[in-house]
């Protein structure tokens, strides 16, 4: 059994690539700028919303 944590949760938490600079994509929840490029197609979250979403969907056990 490994203890690195990667084997523990089966939720796919794929994240978009970090942007090198502006323009940044808007957070889909609060409309604040994120760390992701504006050209990224998909769901983008700002750091506070990303953290809250991670807490909400965390594996329990």
UniProtKB/TrEMBL annotation:
This one is known as Hydrolase
